[in-house]
Amino acid sequence: MNVSFNDPNTSELCQPIGIIDAVLCWEPPTQPNWAVHVIKKTERSKQCFKGLKQCRSLVTPCSKLPKQEAPKTLYCHDMAGGYLNDKDVKGNEKNDGFEFFRWSCIDIFVYFSHHLVTIPPLGWINAAHKNGVMVLGTIITEGARGEAIWSKLLSDKLLISKFANSLAKISQYYGFDGYLLNVENSIPPSKVKLFCDFISILRVHLKSSNFENMVIWYDSVIYPMGSVFYQNALNQLNRKFFELTDGIFLNYAWTDKHLEVTLVNAGSRKKDVFVGVDVFGRGCRGGGGFGTIEAVEAIRNWGLSVALFAPGWVHECCLPGEEFLSRDYKFWDYLRDHLYVYGPSYLPFRTTFCLGRGKKFFVNGKLEKEGPWYDLSKQDYQISGLIGSHGTINSCLSYNDNDGFNGGGSLSVCLEVNEPDVEVSAKGENCCAWTTSEYNLDTPCGKVYEIGCMLAGDKSPLLIGELNIERG
């Protein structure tokens, strides 16, 4: 009897695929679903700055370096099993979901869950792509069930080819950029070579549609034994998987000695080693949470890339009376000196600074709807400075969700203007002359649409609702 396995994704819901046969039989749905709304990844600047600066220190020059010389930062999103408020394609009216918006200092975003094939929800793909960040899904197998899956797949080379091809087609159809491969079950030693063939085939299929697509290996199974033995370093027992993929995500219980060994084994690819940091602190230096800085600082001292696991801790572990944005600001403030910051590399450029949620919704400066809403697909390009909630210590930039131009609010700039005859901006007029070698243009100009106006000596905030930068 033929059994049909339908893709669970619809025009309303983003879902993972949990059954191996559903992956093997996968074909693009006959009825269009949310995939038609995915946007392509934008280009980022070819150079970056070291340090996510507080707004009051922006006058201090930052260290500038070419993209290829900077260690990377991977953000692995694991929150309460995944597919929470973010699974709703058209958003919802809850406004209590988690949103991440510090994209300028992130290179790769991984959506993680414990389903066989995790397909990142639409909102996360679009928010990351809009800011030039790669988005990976997750392939995970664990325990006895994982062993059964690989026993079936590795019984026939045609099956592993079919599995790899289906995974690549799923990635291409849903517009994300590859996978984190997390195999936490043993592979029979006699099948390890065939397992390696699968990884190679998957990577070839992914890159056939876009050479930037990638596979990152999680530090679990060792070669050639096939058993699960976390190494916490790049060494001879996991180097084979590193060579077959675009990078390795190391386990969390590393020491300085592990990092020293890693550096030796990585050679010229040290930036493809993502040293794991569990923000919940499980077996990790610094104990996670606000102590995450201790681990990140140690990793950067060796010039290696960082994989932050579950930074949604700032939201998930909020105590009564605490504000998520204040905790979020504090967390990234601690890390700021060890992050590498990128910007857009295209013109014209436009952003409303929308976070993808709010308690009001504005269209062209008019209130269209009052009431809470959450839709990450509406998140817009975010600035590269360190932004907090209103009143956060040392923050002159914050989000204002009481007034806006388009979306859920505006960017609040709270600075005292000392020049007696200076008006910072006027609605709809050019606000600045702008020169940058990145754009290779002499006089691109900015246009700001703001609510309110900050004059000389005025300490009230300027609310910027929309920024347009055009070719001069």
UniProtKB/TrEMBL annotation:
- What is this protein's record name? Mannosyl-glycoprotein endo-beta-N-acetylglucosaminidase
Query: Any idea where the Cytosolic endo-beta-N-acetylglucosaminidase TIM barrel domain is?
Result: 83-361
Q: PANTHER family annotated for this entry?
A: CYTOSOLIC ENDO-BETA-N-ACETYLGLUCOSAMINIDASE, ENDO BETA N-ACETYLGLUCOSAMINIDASE
Provide a GO CC annotation, any one. cytosol
User: Which SUPFAM superfamilies does the entry mention?
Assistant: (Trans)glycosidases
Q: Which GO terms describe its molecular function?
A: mannosyl-glycoprotein endo-beta-N-acetylglucosaminidase activity
Q: Name one Pfam family in it.
A: Glyco_hydro_85
